[in-house]
Amino acid sequence: MKATQLAVSPCSNPDLALDEALEAYARIGFAKFEAFTSWVASALDWRAPSAPYTAAARRAGVRFCSLHLPPVQADAVPTTLTAAVQAAHVAAAVGARVVLFKASDRPTYIEAAPAFLHAVDELAVTPVLQNHAGAPISTLADFREVLDGIGDGRMRTLLEVGHFHAVGVSWREAADALGDSVALVHVKDQIGRQSVPFGTGEIDLPGLVAYLDETGYTGDIVVEMEVSDKENTLTYLAAARRYLLRYCEEHHDS
User: Fold this and answer.
1) For residue 72, with 0-12 CB atoms within 10 Å meaning exposed, 13-18 middle and 19 or more buried, which class applies?
2) Is the separation of the CB atoms in 116 and 82 below 8 Å?
3) Cα(187)–Cα(78) distance, rounded to whole angstroms?
4) Which residue, 5, 122, 147, 163, has fewest beta-carbon neighbours within 10 Å?
5) Angstrom distances, CA of residue 95 to CA of 38, 63, 86, 226
6) Residues 192-236: pLDDT tens digits?
7) List of residues 6+ apart from 3 with CB closer than 8 A
8) How many domains does the chain have?
9) What is the CATH number of the domain that holds 219?
């Protein structure tokens, strides 16, 4: 793992506007940012011109690495699929190389994926599926159902360490099951479902760093922080970045 692989998610500070978030994360050492299209104050509007977003990232010295697409909805597949495709074009325009493809349920994932993959095939983006506790893809069984149903290797996966931990699946079990399909990693430390500062929870993060290095993973690793004492989030994010890099250095030196 290299420092250049580390990115940060605005779920950590959802109230920060885009300029504020980019500048705050740049100050603590992050040069990559995972963007959303909803929920957070820093969300990109996929219906708007992309140039202002590119300019904001350039001013902060930060690069967009990935983008959460608006979900395809079972009761409105044609229109919401079009929105997801348009958002993927925005991702490509701002330089984000990974897009998180979402749907309201597993059958809709399977139904909509072929048309989505065809529509974005010539874009310089890699679509991934994300697991999230309580969402249509929560467990490894959910992943298998959707991946088997899609049956297309162009659809890759996201190893969402925290949300796997929340449903009782270790990152190692998930990584072994998903294998080479993993094109993005999200990382937290947690006690149960609660996000905590890195190194104080139950997740074997040093082991994860070593595993990613040993298996030759070269994609981005997005750091997430959703602690209860939110006023300390930026301090914890800076410490999380140092923590991961320290174990990476120790692994290389051993």
Assistant:
1) buried
2) no
3) 33
4) 122
5) 19, 7, 14, 26
6) 999 999 999 999 999 999 999 999 999 999 999 999 999 999 999
7) 29, 245
8) 1
9) 3.20.20.150
Q: Contact, 227 vs 195, CB < 8 A?
A: yes
Range of 98's domain? 3-253
Burial readout 156-190 (b: 16 or more C-beta within 10 A, e: otherwise): bbbbbbbbbbbbebbbeebbebbeebbbbbbbbbb
Which amino acid is residue 68, in one-letter code?
H
Q: How far is 30 from 236, CA to CA, in rounded Å?
A: 13
pLDDT in tens, 140-198: 999 999 999 999 999 999 999 999 999 999 999 999 999 999 999 999 999 999 999 99
Q: Is the whole model's pTM more than 0.90, yes or no?
A: yes
Q: CA 161, CA 208: separation in Å to the nearest integer?
A: 9
